[in-house]
Amino acid sequence: MAARFLRVSSLAAAAVASCGIYLHNRQLDLSDLSVIRFGRAAAATAFISYDYLTAFKGVEYGTEDYVALRSKVHLRSAERLRDLCCANRGTFIKVGQHLGALDYLLPEEYTSTLKVLHSQAPQSSMKEIQQVIREDLGKELSELFVFFEEKPQGAASLAQVHKAVLHDGKIVAVKVQHPKVQKQSSRDIVVIEALLKAVHLLFPDFAFMWLVEEAKKNMPLELDFLNEGRNAEKVAKMLSHYTFLKVPGVYWHLSSKRILTMEFADGGQVNDKNYMQKCFSEMIFVHGFVHCDPHPGNVLVQKCPYSQKSQIVLLDHGLYQVLHAEFRLDYCRLWQALIRGDMSGVERYSRRLGAGDLYPLFACVLTARSWTSVNAGISSVPVTQSEENEIRSNAALYLPQISELLNRVPRQMLLLLKTNDLLRGIESTLQTRASSSSFLNMSRCCIRALARHRKTKAASWIRRVHITLMESVQLWTITAFELLLWVRTSALAHCFMALLC
């Protein structure tokens, strides 16, 4: 017996040693092994599930003690999820970033904790970067660039960006994909899907399968940098009439599926909300081609070297949403109804967009406003801090209903909700959430989009002229209203009223 145990122990030791030598020789990181990645994810899911199953025993639902305990459980779970994303990297960080952007859809403990993933993405070594460039472009760094900055300008979940100088002296930004992401992403999505299904069995109200569906659809697109280059050129052409917008040009001969070389753009993070609102309202309502990741790191402000005026520089074009015409027009009509306080229109177009009987919740989620403000017309009621707090607390209170809503609405709506929340986050940072200007810009784009659609359906030139005149009247009405608001809030108006009094 002892001899058999010794033989088995010797064989096991030899096997472990062999595996260790193999992994060392291949310089494999244990984190790259699927079994390790799955084990981490399964363990984190088990801990989080057990916490929610056991933490509330003996605590009465709805009491102050329950609310306080729920906040603590949310925070513990969010921290475990954040740590899992940081350990597994790649797709896990991308999914965590998506959740962190849903400010008005998820409990604040989750969104505030997961937001740090935008600044905690992993970095690839210079050796790995050189290997990707060598494999995809077939040349060494020194053959392509006279200078290549080793420290990246920024690192994200899927890639990192380096500043470089070409042999003709032009400064470029070289975006290089992390070498292991392509291979790991499909496996990671399978793991996330399996674990979400397991959680759904334990907690039927937790129905976040839409998250997996979006990852399956969008991850291959985001991992194809040639697709990103084409998106950049398309949006540059589409919004070329905006002189304040700059989209860096693509160097196609230095680009591949894993490498994207573009003009280098420097600048501070976005600080002009009016430009942002015009760009994104036109993308959504008029063209239906929407940049779906406008967090501050992807939107810079610089001075144009020729005009000396401020320019918005739009970066990272990997994730765009193409809106179907019928969806886009219903979305336009819904926003017009929300702005005017037309409740029959709000119900009609919310239902057409898949919200069903949850249309009041859908209206609040879409606008990040209370039901009282929605009834009054969101353009006429400024956002208050108490309303902000109410909306954020409701994200925790109505999580099962929000989860059901997100599974009901068309998939196109999901990335729009994320885009809306990211833009609102920028407005909150700039302290401009209470302003009506965003709604006025949206109104203009909705009017233009619907007028364009009606003209395509018009049977005669007289009808087209009539539509054009009505469009002009509506646009001038908005301009007059905007002027009135400016007069009311301007210092000159206050001085004039003071003199009269």
TrEMBL record:
PROSITE patterns assigned: PROKAR_LIPOPROTEIN
UniProt xrefs under InterPro entries: ABC1_dom (IPR004147), ADCK1_dom (IPR045307), Kinase-like_dom_sf (IPR011009), Mito_struct-func_regulator (IPR051130)
Pfam families reported for this sequence: ABC1 (PF03109)
Signal peptide: 1-17
One of the record's GO cellular component terms: mitochondrial inner membrane
Superkingdom assignment: Eukaryota
Keyword terms, alphabetized: Signal
Domain ABC1 atypical kinase-like: 117-349
Biological process according to GO: lipid homeostasis; mitochondrion organization
Protein family per UniProt: Belongs to the protein kinase superfamily. ADCK protein kinase family.
Function: Appears to be essential for maintaining mitochondrial cristae formation and mitochondrial function by acting via YME1L1 in a kinase-independent manner to regulate essential mitochondrial structural proteins OPA1 and IMMT. The action of this enzyme is not yet clear. It is not known if it has protein kinase activity and what type of substrate it would phosphorylate (Ser, Thr or Tyr).
Annotated protein name in UniProt: AarF domain-containing protein kinase 1
Species assigned in the record: Takifugu rubripes (Japanese pufferfish)
Originating gene: adck1
